[in-house]
Amino acid sequence: TPGYGDSPPTGTVATQQGRVAFLERILEELGLRRPVLVSPSMSGRFALPFLLLHGDRLGGFVPIAPVGTRDYAVGQYRRVQTPTLILYGDRDTHLGHQALQSLRHLPRHRVAVLPGAGHACYLDKPGDFHRALLGFLGQLQ
Questions:
Q1: Which domain of life is it from (predicted)?
Q2: Which residue among the candidates 39, 102, 109, 119 is catalytic per the annotation?
Q3: Which phi and psi angles does 102 have, rounded to 5°?
Q4: How many angstroms separate the CA atoms of 29 and 43, rounded?
């Protein structure tokens, strides 16, 4: 995620509009049509506003305890028709549960909770994570 970890800070993603435009450019430059957007943790600051504005451009959405879910109203989530797999580890008692409270308002969602996994459930239980992800992808049209 730009601006996090070892990536250089950038002013272009300092605003919500900038983050949406950043994802739009990536999809355009890669020529991706209706991709499935997988969004762990801090990437929620990019993925959630994109989903709420352009969910019709996505084939699916997989939020993994993303940050920023409380920044949006229930009505905004209810308008999104993107198939969604809400995924988190059962040991992620803070962000996983918090995100679920907002994301459960997405009309076309299902939930997968990985037993014995923490916030980075894809690292803690990669086999379970990939089974859940591949199962979801297999059901998309």
A1: Eukaryota
A2: 119
A3: -90, -45
A4: 19
pLDDT band at 93 (very low <50, low <70, confident <90, very high): confident
Residues in the chain: 141
Is 105 a catalytic site residue? no
Task: Annotate 70-109 with b (16+ C-beta within 10 A) or e (fewer).
Answer: eebeeebbeebebbbbbbbbebbeebbebbbebbebbeeb
In the chain, the domains with their CATH numbers are 34-138 (3.40.50.1820)
Q: How far is CA 140 from the centre of its chain?
A: 16
Q: Which residue of the set 43, 92, 109, 128 is catalytic? A: 92
- The stretch 125-135 carries a mean pLDDT of 97
Among this protein's residues, is 94 annotated catalytic? no
| pLDDT band at 82; cut points 50, 70, 90 | very high
41 is catalytic: yes
- Under a CB-based contact definition with an 8 Å cutoff, are residues 66 and 44 in contact? yes
Q: What is the mean pLDDT of residues 38-62?
A: 95
Distance from C-alpha of 101 to C-alpha of 90, rounded to nearest angstrom: 14
